[in-house]
Hints:
Oligomer: single chain
Radius of gyration: 14 Å
Shape: globular
Mean pLDDT: 97
Largest sheet: 4 strands, antiparallel
Strand order of the largest sheet: 2-3-1-4
Order of helices and strands: EHEEHHE
Structural class: alpha+beta
Number of helices: 3
Low-confidence stretches: none
Number of strands: 4
Distance between the termini: 6 Å
Helix content: 25-40%
Amino acid sequence: xxxxxxxxxxxxxxxxxxxxxxxxxxxxxxxxxxxxxxxxxxxxxxxxxxxxxxxxxxxxxxxxxxxxxxxxxxxxxxxxxxxxxxxxxxxxxxxxxxxxxxxxxxxx
Length: 108
């Protein structure tokens, strides 16, 4: 099992729009594509309170490539993302890391 850590830094004031998009659209599409979220977090104290950090679980990088590509090219996702950004861009930048659990990790 590998975990993907993704951090979305929002345009100031646009974090609520991103959270709404995840709650109302993204998660439903991920379920259709078999994408498994582990947890979602906003920043209480840190560099920016305009961040959404979340983790996804993957069996392998190959699984990630297949499912993520299918999601990103899904016409329903493309249309929903465009609609959610009618009032302007939401995300300024995204960072991603792939993590492997240690032998003593609670998540395996």
